[in-house]
Amino acid sequence: MYSNRPGGKGFEAEIEVILYIVGFFIGWPVMLFLMAERLRNLGKFTFVDIISDRLDPVSTRCVAAGSSLVVVLLYLIVQMVGAGELVQLLFGIDYAYAVVGVGALMMIYVTVGGMVATTWVQIIKAVLLMFGGSLLMLLSLAVLFDGVPGRQGAGGPVVAGYAARAAQRHLRRDESRTGFPPPH
């Protein structure tokens, strides 16, 4: 009913999906603080450097390179599918031609421009994403509060109705677990 994406499926199943979404951003700094000092003290930069000191360096680096290529290939497939769908939707051309065209365009600008061109593309994408996210947040707040903090606007009843339905769903879930109605 809600979505085919993980957040929508989690909402339908009443799973706290936010833990999975935010978990990386909580776990990454902890691992960084725990491991960065040890890596610096060893004079190494990556975990592969440490493992290759302990094990056979050639086979360790081959396995690391192969696994990195698999991850990059899977990431690239997803990116190409998304880019092909977007170009097909925007320009109305066939999907196969869109994927080939986007792939050729990416290879050309990386080959001609090198890492400088790739870096500028990432900078432009980051600025556009920050602008779009900020605009979406401001428009959402304008709908909820009509631009005046403390006063509910057109979105107020929608949010209140959602909160009431969520509370009823949790009360029914608690009652079905214990067999007793919740205390009032």
What is the molecular shape?
Answer: extended
Q: What is the β-strand count?
A: 0
Rounded mean pLDDT is 77
Q: How many DSSP H or I helices? A: 6
Distance, first to last CA = 31 Å
Percent of residues in helical segments?
A: over 70%
Give the helices and strands as they follow along the chain: HHHHHH
As residue ranges, the low-confidence spans are: none
Structural class: mainly alpha
Bin the strand percentage: under 5%
| Largest β sheet strand count, sense and barrel closure | none
Radius of gyration: 25 Å
Quaternary? single chain
Task: Please characterize this protein's 3D structure.
The two termini are 31 Å apart. It contains 6 helices and no strands. Helix 4 crosses helix 5. It is mainly alpha-helical. Among the domains are: 43 residues, no CATH class; 31 residues.
